[in-house]
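Sample intake sheet
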Amino acid sequence: MAISRYIKNYDTLLASAVGFYIIYLFTRYSGIGISPDSIMYTSAARSFAAHGSTLTFNHAPIVDFPVFYPIFLGIVFFITGIDPVAAGPVLNGLMFAAVIYLSGLIMHRFSVASRLYKWLILPVIVLSAALLQVYTYLWSETLFILLCLIFFLALRQYFLKYTLGSLILVAFIAALSCVTRYAGVTVIGTGGLLLLLDRSLPTKKKINHILIYGVVSCSLLVINLLINILSTKSLTGPREPSITPFAENLHYSGTVFCDWLTLTPNQYAIASPLVWLFIFGFTSALLFNFMRKRLTTYENIAITFALVYGLFIILSATFSRFERINSRLLAPMFIPLIWGSTSWVIGIVKRLKFKPRLFVSIPLAAVMLLFAYRSYKIDWQRCYDQCDYGNPGYTDDDWNLSPFAKFLKEDKGKMFKPGVIIYSDAHEAVYFLSGTSSFLLPHKFFKKDVQKFYDTKHFYLIWFNNVYYKELLTLDDIKKVKHLKLLKQFEDGGIYEYNAADEPN
């Protein structure tokens, strides 16, 4: 009976199959997209599969990112014998299909469900440029988004049963999300906030459940952070203070929302007001659901998560420096944002009589179909470009056809003397191309690291011209202090050596 119920969900199964196929189309030319983060995950996964540790290519523990995603990739590698880079297209396709299927399953269980609504939203999810970008790269967001949807399902089951077992399951999924991405604290926050606001339990039992949830959900993150401190004396790696104020981060988030709405950069003037509308609207919806005792629905769980996650990203970017807020960072809130922005329409339409219902439903359906079509046009252009060029990153043609990259692949570090340290402005690329371990040039902000680098008596420097990271020491900076000997010159970079013994007295 249970199996037949899932099979009858044929529309969602079909959408999942389409999603899997789209990932195949995007990755068939050059494979899964590889960024510097991807190489960190991959090297730690290989280490875990081979030795049970999560050391990265530079023989240091992975601390900038939590450990579960590399462990997940390592387990897949260990079971299948297929390297994460090679397995990426299929693995990501399966996870994207699972995200689509769970989304359909959740929409089918909305407090006011509508098959037409599901048919309109599923294409929006399948064709989402934000999700397709994530699932065509080897990124931890792929697993994190899936865990978020599983969390929604588990939390809803807890609110239906209020059993200790269902509570521990919710807390464990939240714990896994935290060691998949540090932003998983928003999953803990979502659950904790809803448990606190829920008025269904007696006070004593409610306090006990909140304490149990807090301990279990934070357990894996605490263990991960303790290991980080013991191994590197750092919680989450070196972090610099932010250089973007709250207003700028609000604007950047709004530009992402504009892109998701398929608007153009010419319409970025509405970016900040769009985010304020989101904050005000979702906060109001949460308060309304609290007053009406509708906190435990899937729709409200999604609203709460989108609000908590969105505010967390904006505020954390205001206090800590990382890449500018972009679609990848906000992608986990895409599906909850869509649900929170549209699901309330179902109830309004269903309360109308037949003719007014048609009068309202047809224009709304037309708007959603137009939105899906505009998303399709964007996806088609991207797919067309990537079928000729590859996913932007270390597997695209800029790298595949580069003479410098070809040399590194063929040399595999043979030109370097054993025991001499190697630095690079793209140490992940050095490992990905040649399998050689190297160290990233120090950030200018960390003066002690800069001095330590300049105190090094003998080192090699692999410099890539097409990698620009303004936070790092540049080639010109180093040349002002050190006399570098050029060993190999290419149009897109070069290999240098510094030896204090060669300096004139």
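Comment: The CA atoms of residues 249 and 314 lie 6 Å apart. The chain has a mean pLDDT of 91.
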